[in-house]
Design brief:
The protein is mainly α and 146 residues long. It has one domain. It contains seven helices and no strands.
Amino acid sequence: MKTLADIIDSIGFGPGQLSQLIHGGGIFFCDGAELLLLSAVASSVAKEWDLTKVQQAMTVSIVFVGVMVGNWWGSIADVWGRRCPIMCAYLTVGLLGMFSAAAQSYVMLMCVRFFVGVAIGFGIPPWVTLCNEITPGYRRHVSTPG
């Protein structure tokens, strides 16, 4: 009886893995885009709301705190499967991105940005696991001790 790993090894790396790489790996694209966008507009938001340098830095940094919190729930993908958490992360990042644009105060912006980070962090562990599961064994990087 062949295992799933044997079947993936016999199929090799192809369009299925490439499709998953584009769709699932997009969660890292979302993370980068969110941080790039926020760091680009942080100075204009700081001027408009008269924020201090610390507050301005926190608007960018709070996303990382949210990512850390979101990563704690990565094991949910072991129960729900990999697709559902990844798709929930995309949906939540999109919706919260719109809420960020509509934020009326600094505190509201910080709360929304925190939860954007949580959503991104929620999608990263399932994607990393899925990526490992669908990659043929001979394509995985193996580190040797020493």
